[in-house]
Amino acid sequence: MNHDRQEEALLWYKGLKETNNDTFLPLFFDKHRFLVLKGGGGSGKSIFAGRKVLERVTSEPGHRWLVCRKVARTLRESCWAQLVGQISDFYPDAGAKTNKSAMTITFSNGSVILFAGLDDVEKLKSIFNITGIWIEEASELEEGDFNQLDIRLRTDFNQYLQMILTFNPISITHWLKKRFFDRKDPRATVHESTYKDNRFLTPEAVATLESFKETDEYYYMVYCLGQWGVTGKTVFNGKAVGERLQHLEPPAKEGLFEYDLADDGIHLTNIHWVEEKGGPIRIYTPPQEGRPYVIGGDTAGDGSDWFVAQVLDNVSGVQVCTLRHQYDEDTYTRQLYCLGLHYNKALLAPECNFSTYPVKLLGLMGYPKLYVREVEDSFDGQIHHAYGFRTDRLTRPVILAELVRVMRDHLDTIHDRATLEEMLTFVRNEQMRPEAEPGAHDDCVMALAIAHYVRPQQSMRLTTPQPQGGAAWTSDMWEDWNRASPGDREMLLRLWGRPGDNKGG
């Protein structure tokens, strides 16, 4: 680059820096197919999008850039007015000619900006050879609308092709979140901003936005801070959950357990931990010697496709680990077995509503401490015992009420993002029944509720391992043993293991 061109480039960049917010500057050079800009009100994301469109159409001849929204009539007072104003302010020498009736802007270098709403079918039919697309308020679109636009972005244009999406987050279940935020698309750059990133806002505008902290906390979270919202009334404190999401630390470890399957096809040998970024098991606090743990499990069923386990430190109630994956039942059960052993032979409480397979396999594998529930015999009314937790019309409201109570004061015990995001979409329906919002899941919430409910069946005290062999029983466990019938004592031995000589009974 010669000296004159270098000076010209420096002046150009200086002009960009002086008239744009720092958070967006790197995006002027981004060449990914999808540039996804999620932000709160006043963040400046749409202003930036307009500038990038104009930078490209004025410097790269021959563009046919499409600017669109869901409804055509909304374009005139939004994107059209903004771009016309930006041309006047920053590109007065670009030879722009505006045609308000046809909603087009042409430039002396042959580039053109076209405007169309997705409800304007006839106009869309005439649009072809698109070199770039800006979708304003992209959350208004259905995914099918987006796909139709995506296939129009194909041409032999000698510059890179890009779709710019700008939007305020509406619902945590929206397809935009699932497509660009829940998974990593290598063709996409995802950017998030708030009004705090916009140095051009007037003090009065900032004061107006921040006033919503007091008048409408939910509006402030979603429309000012750009957090994903929900369409129903949340069961948990949405503001507190949203704030907790802003202060999470990454897990200490991510991965899974690997093992060898014995010849009998049941037992496991050579169990060992394998680190894997993005693995199904996320460890936030490793197991500590002498600490008791409980694990609540929610199996895939009733429309869900996730197997989940929540691990709690039973002394403090803190969430220390999660397992979440789209497993087969046998793989899930074996990971659950390994996880339980890893956490000091934790009390395992897998749900058995839709399948008893995990409980049966854990029994065959000889897992030493399974949750035991009481079952009333329908014939003689006698109380019997069975392994696993059953969620039904009686237990479901009980475990959820307990979880809501605990989370009201101890939300800081939750470290897992997926769990907190499920809390945001766990709402009351029209009948006031708590459930996942349509399109969302409740596996993490239910597994956490089960884990908290079963805690009393596990020790809540630190124990010291017994050197002479045998399990370490607490005084509470011995009290239960002394009150138990001979039949129940056999069940307790299977749950807790044979005691050491730390105390007589």
The major beta sheet can be summarized as: 8 strands, mixed
CATH class of the largest domain: Alpha Beta
Spatial order of the strands in the main sheet? 3-4-5-2-6-7-1-8
**How would you classify the helix and strand content by structural class?**
alpha/beta
Report how far the terminal alpha carbons are from each other.
88 Å
> Can you tell me the CATH architecture of the largest domain?
3-Layer(aba) Sandwich
Q: Which residues sit in consecutive blocks of at least 5 with pLDDT less than 50? A: none
Q: How many separate domains make up the residues?
A: 2
Primary descriptors:
20% strand, 7-stranded mixed sheet, Rossmann fold, 2 domains, alpha/beta, 35% helix, 505 residues, elongated, Nucleotidyltransferase, domain 5
Topology, element by element:
Layout (H helix, E strand, L loop, with lengths): L2 H17 L14 E6 L5 H15 L4 E6 L6 H15 L6 E3 L4 E3 L5 E6 L3 H5 L6 E5 L6 H10 L9 E6 L7 H7 L6 E6 L9 H8 L1 H4 L1 H8 L8 E2 L3 H8 L7 E9 L6 E8 L5 E3 L9 E6 L8 E7 L5 E7 L3 H14 L4 E4 L6 H9 L6 E5 L6 E5 L7 H16 L6 H8 L1 E3 L5 E3 L6 H11 L21 H9 L2 H11 L9
Parallel strand pairs: 1-7, 1-8, 2-5, 2-6, 6-7, 13-16
Antiparallel strand pairs: 3-4, 4-5, 9-19, 10-11, 10-12, 12-15, 13-14, 14-15, 17-18, 19-20
Helix pairs in contact: 2-3, 10-14, 11-12, 13-15, 14-15
Compact summary:
With 505 residues, the chain is an alpha/beta fold.
Would you mind describing this structure in some detail?
It is a single chain. The protein is of the alpha/beta class. It folds into 2 domains: 20-229, Rossmann fold, CATH 3.40.50; 253-457, Nucleotidyltransferase, domain 5 (2-Layer Sandwich), CATH 3.30.420.240. Helix content is 35%, strand content 20%. It contains 17 helices and 20 strands. The strands form 4 sheets. Strands 3-4-5-2-6-7-1-8 form an 8-stranded mixed β-sheet. It has a 7-stranded mixed β-sheet with strand order 11-10-12-15-14-13-16. The termini are far apart. The model has no long low-confidence stretch (mean pLDDT 87).
